[in-house]
Model the fold of this input.
Amino acid sequence: MGVVDLNNLSDMQYDVLKELGNIGAGNATTALSQMLSIRMDMSVPNVALLDFCDISSFVGPEDAPVVGILLGLGGDITGMMMFLFDINSARHLVNKLMMDEKNMSYEFNEIELSALNEIGNIVGGSYLTALATLTQMRIEPSVPCMTIDMLGALLDVPAAEYARYGDKILIIQSKFGESDISGYFLLIPELESYAKILSCFGMC
Amino acid sequence: MGEIIKVGMADLKIAHSPDVLTTLGLGSCVGIALYDPVTGIGGLLHFMLPDSTRMHNNENKAKFADTGLMELIRQMEAAGAKKNRMTAKIAGGAKMFASVVKSDTLLVGERNIEAARMNLQLQGIPLKAEDVGENFGRTVELNTLDGSYTIKAIGKGVKVI
Done:
């Protein structure tokens, strides 16, 4: 199996990755929408190969406070996936779950933090299950880990991983949401895993 | 206050007094601020990884502590600053997530801090102050008027070093 050159992906290969993001995020959005009994929409996913200095302009302002839930991926596909939503969305999510619509605080107590983490677990799990089914590969997510901080600081984690291989990062981004809740999934496989994913679809 | 100049990830820039150099949301990355008080020339490097010699892909000098610092010094000297007058301040190198699989991914912040200190020592530039490590992101501003380095973190207020 060859190594994929991220700088020279064909349109077809981009489309395959985009479709992967679409299916994963679709499943995850459905899970979230069922859990909260609300309607949620999803946008067409973006796949982009970016210079490190352009990541934030693609995802959002570097200093915006966000909730980030990181899952490590093991098994046939290695790398990580990140589930990001802004602090207002996090508050709305927790309020829906706790049936407490009045709380507008940006501070989260221990139970609320644990609820957010669990949302990340369920949502991340459904994203990856869809991916595993589609590719017929084994994907084992780690226990999720949540941090609330500046977007730029959270994106350092996947970016540092990519920086080992080159000067760009490939991001598969899917946006979901309704009026009060919106967020992103970022799928960040390691370089070797791209070859595996693409070869599943006879693209490598 | 002069113009505010933004430095991105794996990026470096220099500025003259009274301009301000800033980089937003440092996580495991480290921001090295150099300052020559005589000329009022400052430089800010936002690097991602500790060591270029262990990587194959090292075209972007600003990605690494070693090559980034050398390039920053070179650009500042070309603008008229003197290396023997420069002082340094560093910030960043946080551990953003408590756990998650690959341990070397999580140690990158700590390694970046060590690399910043070591490369400054190698270049003979005194490290005057630092705000590093722990588990939160930082936005930094180097004011070339006086060389002050302002650090902002969510819920932690503003700190000037």
About this structure: Chain B has a mean pLDDT of 91. The two ends of chain B are 18 Å apart (CA to CA). The helical segments of chain B are 65-78, 103-106, 108-123.
